Each structure stands twice: as structure tokens, then as C-alpha cells.
Amino acid sequence: MKITRRMILAAGAAMFLTQPLAAAAQDLPHNIRMVIGSSSTGGDTYQNSVIVAEALSQKLGVNMKVDAVGANEAFKALERDGRGTTIMVFHDSAYLSHLYGVHGFDDIFTKYKIGPTVAINPGNAYLVAKDSPYKSMDDIFKAAAAGTKIRVAIEPGGVSEIGFSAMKNAASILSPGSEANIVSVKTGSQSDKNQAMFDDLADVINGSIQANEQFTQLPESDQKAMRFVWITARPETIEQAPDMGMGKTTRDDMLKYTSPKTNVTEDGKKDFTFDKEFFFLYNKDMDQGMVDAIDVALKDVFAEGKIQERQKQAFFIPNFKPSKEAAAHLGEKNAAYKEIIAKISGK
Q1: Which of 72, 147, 162, 239 is the most exposed place for a label (fewest CB within 10 A)?
Q2: Are residues 66 and 181 in the same domain?
Q3: Are residues 164 and 185 in the same domain?
Q4: 233 vs 17, 89, 151, 319, CA distance in Å?
Q5: What is the total count of domains within the chain?
């Protein structure tokens, strides 16, 4: 094939266009510490982060190590490092805990750079004992309206509490004043919330499909038997889950507990929904070229399609949004939840 001057010029232009990305990728540190807002190496934050870190390491040619240090230590590590050798992955608790006034949580939208979103855990849920008189959220709201106290076990602040806030908000819309009958039982880990139900200290608990599905398969006579009453994820999110679902709970089973089949109103017109999303956070001074390099690398990784397979195997829903789009999206969620929390707290 004859090489023409036009072909040479086109090749040169293409090389020029790729140089800024190549330079930015080369400027990334060879060793990058990915701190996460969880101290557990068995939880969803760690599992999701490892999948993403391995894909990015291969794409960028860097060594990325996931370090499960917990939220407070992760934020401290991020604040100390503006060079890009430390980045962070966390979920919506990063901003929800600030809205709830949890000590040690600042406004992430002003203190840090928001990076890309990478996945959704669709499993955030609320459950009752299998022999409970409350078979649905509608039963719960009717009981609250009739004057019955509904005890809801949550871990205060963050993802565990936002659904509880939504319940109180919905109760106040459906029957003003009944929100006072939806009360929190403040616990810690998932096992603590489960135990509150086993000990009859809570009528409803915050749980997850992953952690609690096994209990929904037990016979009603078993003290540990539970049933789902609400899955907070958007139906569009659950529809992306594998057909088989998890355990013996299929995707179609899960959709029975999501909007619109299960209603928890947000404003009297639309249902409240909540997707637990995982995203990157960067030091405010981290070079924008590094941010862009990670964005482009992740875009390529998701375009290849392999990471989605791994995520779905671990019951995550792939959810890549580049940094700018992610910041706008998470900012909208922050504003909406801030309004709900302010309403039920009277602030």
C-alpha cells in the first residue's frame, strides 16, 4: 500500500491527540494506595474495590493496593496526600454521614475531588420477622397511623439510616403525625441488627439481600426466619441483576419489593428509591491530569466488558460515570436526601 502525505499527517495528528493522556498516565505514581471507607475485607466495599483496582492496575501499568482502613482513617490518609499516591473508594455514606452530623465526616463536595462511580450494590433492604403481622410496607404505615410504635433497627448515619428517614418522611405524608410512631433502635453491625430482631427488640431491620437472604428461606417456625418488605434500589437497577438473583430469591422476586410494587412515597407523587453507589474520592490538590487518566482508563475498562462480568458475579451492578458526571449525579442525590433529613428532623 502506498503511504501518502495525507496518511502521514493523519497519523501525526492522532499521535498528538493521544500524547496528553499518555503523559498523564505516565505521571501516575507506580504504587497507588486505594484506601476504602470500611475496615472489613469481607464486605461489599472491599470486594468492589478489589475488582476495580485489579482492572485499573492492568490498564494503567501501576501497582494499586486496596487498604481497608475504615472511613475516618481513609479520609485522613486522603487529606495528607495530594500527589496522587493515595486515592479513596467509598459509597454514599461518604456524604450521608455528613448530612446526619456524624463526627469526622466533612462535606466531600467542598473538601475533595469527586471521582468516577464504578458500581451499585442493589441489596439495601428492610426486613421483618417471617411471623410478623406486618407483611408489607403498607401494613407498617397503617400500623403507625393507628398509633402502633414501629421499631426499626439501624446503624445510625449513612446508608443504614437513609431508608429509615424515608419511612418517617413517607409516614408524615400519608398520615401527618404518624411519623412519630416510627422509631429507631440504634445498633451497630448487621449481626447486631439481626440480633435485635431475634430478641424481639425491633419490628423491622435494615439489612441486605446478600446478608439476609439466607434467613428468608427459613421456615416461619424458626426464630431467625425473616421476610423482605422493601428493597430500596430503583427497579431499573434490580432489572440489571442476574435472572437467578441471589440464593433462592430470583430477580423477579426482588422486583416485588421495589418501586412501584412496593411504595414508600417521597413527596406524595413519586416513590423514594436509593441505590448504594461506589465512587472514587481524590485529594483536592491531586493533579487533574491524573484524574483524567483514571477516567479514561476506566472508560476503556468498561468498554471492554470483562469487569462487568466480575461485578455481576459478586452481585454488583456495573455503573461507570466519569468524574464530572459522577460529581453532578452525587450532588443531586445529596441535595434530595438533605431535604428529606431536614424535614423529619425539623431543621
Answers
A1: 147
A2: no
A3: yes
A4: 40, 20, 22, 13
A5: 2
SS3 181: helix
Please give the DSSP secondary-structure letter assigned to residue 256: T
Which grid coordinates are listed for 305?
A: 466488558
Rounded distance, CA 95 to CA 102, Å? Answer: 10
Predicted TM-score (pTM) of the model is 0.89
Range of the domain at 129: 124-274
The residues facing 182 across adjacent strands are 150
119 strand-pairing partners = 278, 318
Kindly report, residue by residue over 28-68, the tens digit of the pLDDT. 899 999 999 999 988 999 999 999 999 999 999 999 999 99
DSSP for 184-247?
Answer: EEE--SHHHHHHHHHTTS-SEEEEEHHHHHHHHTS-TTSTT-EEEEEE-S-HHHHTTS-TT-BT
Q: Cα–Cα distance between 306 and 308 in angstroms, integer?
A: 5
Boundary of a domain, candidates 228, 243, 274: 274
